[in-house]
BglG family transcription antiterminator
Amino acid sequence: MGKGIGFKKKAGDNVEESAVEKEFTFLRKSMRDSLLDLYEQLPPEEIDLVVGLIKEAEQTLHQNYFLSLYVSLADHIHFAVERAREGLKIKNPLVWEVRKFYPDEFNLSKKYIQRMNRSLELDLDEDEAAALALHFVNARQENGIFRNTYEITHIIDDILKIVRVHYHISFDENSLSFQRVITHLHYLGQRLISGDGTTKMMDPFLYEQVKNKYPEASQCVDKIVTYLLEQRGYKLDTDEIAYLTLHIQRLVTEIEN
């Protein structure tokens, strides 16, 4: 990456090293493929927004982030834009906690949400700002990847088994849609284990809307909810159920297509 790095260039031309501001090198092929697949799907304005925000965060917060942030953040933003244009608003039960414990990331994300609303003509709110802020928190290089990795891994594996059996499908574990679900389940598992989740009803309208629109995915998630409660002792609120339903619907749709 670099300002004007592709100006008057075509495939096969050399790039002056002095114009290069950042290089991306992935140790795992799956991560590289995920980045390529995702950014081929994104419109240029979304790519510019993502790259600009990460650069601003590095400079403002004086942080170094894992390169996976370019995948997770871009994917989250693209999904948020799609949901906003479809009129689906998801309440984030962690807004208060994010605002309190990660004020720098939260305030920066609020600025970014305002920028998105202006440039893309959306109406995103603080719930999305909190979600974006968590991406920055989890991508800090000094933080490691996730806490409680062992239990979270088991939860993810069991949930994927439920989805696989319910739909009688297999997953392409290198696909972008699969990586999206894995990322969401990591965050979900981390919130459940750390006790950051909430069990009160936040937005019953959203829950009913998603349940009626995607009945098959909703039935699958009902099985996951039962598993988490009876086998793990974790209770999901209606917003988590709705969000998980959307992710599973998206995964299955991409597999079937």
